[in-house]
Design goal:
With 216 residues, the protein is an alpha/beta fold. The chain has 7 helices and 11 strands. Strands 3-2-1-4-5-6-11 form a 7-stranded mixed sheet, with helices on both faces. It has a 4-stranded mixed sheet with strand order 8-7-9-10, covered by helices on one side.
Length: 216
């Protein structure tokens, strides 16, 4: 697989380039702030950068006919519309988190949150101190999975990869779901799985939960 990386020197960019290279895939395009290198046409582009890079990502996808795996968070509504527009002509896998466990949690919440509709719910999340958006895209994904809007509490501390907890409570009991990332490598492995999916998928807008559902 020929692939491109947007945010090549970032945390996830480094994880992805190491993982994909170890598995024999060819890096042919890299983009970072004010710097681009193109050595071929990527079949799949992976973007784990910042919202400001979206224009370059979309341009390269259109120029090279590339599928897209995108894990950047903090997009505006208009940017999200542009991503969906691209999905009309190629496979786009868009998720705020490519961890398997956290997406399974979101799927569980979708299936069972109706049974908890009369419970109070709040979300808390903790990430490293360089993360720009708060609440995190993952917290918003979990909130959407509950089917309602609720308070979300954000902490930005140290070098923590990401903790997310959903609390459901009523007068006499508390039900808590927690997911913790202990190694960023799991996010890279999930993105790799999504790239393999996007390589052969029909044009359309997919989430990582759609990718996981193919293994059900």
């Amino acid at each position: 697989m020929r692939y491109g990386l947007i945010g090549y020197t970032g945390r996830m960019g480094k994880e992805l380039s190491t993982l994909l290279s170890e598995n024999g895939h060819e890096l042919v395009l890299t983009v970072d702030e004010n710097e681009e290198h193109v050595a071929g046409a990527p079949q799949v582009i992976l973007d784990f950068s910042l919202p400001g890079a979206l224009a370059a990502t979309l341009r390269h996808c259109r120029e090279h006919g590339s599928a897209l795996v995108i894990g950047t968070t903090g997009f505006s509504d208009s940017q999200l519309a542009q991503i969906r527009e691209l999905a009309q002509s190629r496979a786009v896998v868009h998720s705020s988190n490519f961890g398997i466990g956290i997406n399974i949690l979101a799927m569980i919440l979708k299936d069972y949150s109706q049974m908890l509709s009369d419970w109070e719910v709040e979300i808390e999340e903790t990430h490293h101190n360089q993360k720009k958006d708060a609440p995190s895209g993952t917290a918003l994904m979990l909130m959407a999975a509950t089917g309602r809007t609720c308070p979300a509490h954000s902490l930005r501390l140290g070098n923590l990869p990401g903790d997310h907890t959903v609390h459901f409570a009523r007068t006499d009991e508390l039900l808590t779901f927690t997911h913790r990332i202990v190694n960023r490598g799991l996010l890279a492995r999930g993105a790799f799985q999504a790239a393999e999916f996007a390589l052969t998928a029909k044009p359309g807008y997919y989430t990582f939960q759609d990718v996981l559902a193919t293994k059900r």
